[in-house]
Design a protein that fits this description.
8-stranded mixed sheet; disordered N terminus; alpha/beta; 12 strands; globular; Rossmann fold; 21% strand
Length: 294
């Protein structure tokens, strides 16, 4: 049962950084930490390819009475450093960084919520022998990644436009992120402002290193989809799969197979949503909370 926020505990995140290492040197990964800093029950929430830690503000507020909720900016995004070698923007580096983060948090076990890319990183970590992941939530992510979705995402990834105003940027975010499903004007503004940075000349740009597109494009298969079933079969912890009912990245066929193979996940679908549910709405937050706190 969710015990609720501790009396007097302000629901305000702490902004922190942890030093990580790659084959070309050191870099810092930023993360937001919610709830009691001494709570040994840790929930790590990892965002999608071009998003940021701020995507989990609503979920973190809802769960920080039960967990120490930790939301990193994957390297190359948000407030984290950019890598000197763009080809390192791939799952092995992200996995290494997350292991470093867990060591910093000084816990042996964590629960994990990952959206899209964050789900793939979580699945990769959960598949390791003696994994620290005790419960796993995959938000529109799985062991088969549809090529059609990879091609769609690749059309805008790394373009690096400049916007004269936040409003101009919001128009693009609404278009590119239309599969997120219906959101209020205030929610769309939040989804926009949290992925922007202002340039010296007053214009606006997206918050991520455009070079994340370089390894991404090399990963798109010439034919067929990306299949990671051996990784899925290695996952042993209780797992929840969330799927946008109209997702072009995680097919219904794959999602159903995930309930029969590997950890035999529980599946929840959200109508009117594609790739990916934002976990901003009450029904989506409730699905995560009910699975994790059970």
């Amino acid at each position: 049962m969710d015990r609720g926020p501790h009396p007097g505990l302000a629901v305000v995140p702490r902004q922190k950084r942890v030093q990580c290492v790659s084959g070309v040197g050191l870099h810092r990964m930023a993360y937001r930490e919610w709830g009691d800093a001494e709570n040994p029950d840790v929930l790590i929430c990892v965002h999608g390819l071009t998003r940021s830690a701020r995507d989990f503000d609503g979920l973190a507020r809802a769960l920080c009475g039960r967990y120490r909720v930790v939301c990193p900016d994957v390297v190359g995004r948000g407030d984290s450093d950019w890598l000197a070698d763009a080809m390192l923007y791939q799952v092995p580096q992200y996995l290494q960084d997350m292991v470093t983060l867990i060591a910093r948090l000084d816990v042996e076990r964590v629960h994990w919520v990952g959206t899209s890319l964050g789900g793939l990183v979580g699945m990769a970590l959960a598949a390791q022998q003696d994994s620290p992941v005790a419960k796993l939530v995959l938000n529109d992510a799985g062991p088969v990644i549809a090529k059609a979705a990879l091609v769609r995402i690749g059309q805008y990834l790394g373009v690096d436009p400049r916007f004269p105003t936040v409003e101009a940027a919001e128009k693009v975010v609404r278009m590119v992120s239309a599969p997120f499903g219906p959101h209020s004007d205030a929610e769309w503004r939040f989804l926009t402002e949290t992925v922007l940075r202002q340039n010296a000349d007053g214009s606006w740009r997206f918050h991520y290193d455009p070079k994340i597109a370089e390894p991404y494009r090399t990963s798109v298969p010439a034919e067929g989809d990306i299949e990671l079933w051996p990784m899925w079969e290695a996952v042993r912890c209780p797992t929840l799969v969330l799927r946008g009912a109209e997702s072009d990245l995680l097919s219904r066929e794959t999602a159903q197979a995930m309930t029969q193979r590997g950890p035999k996940a529980k599946l929840v679908e959200f109508a009117g949503v594609g790739h990916a549910p934002t976990l901003m709405h009450d029904d989506q937050i409730a699905a995560v909370r009910d699975f994790l706190i059970s």
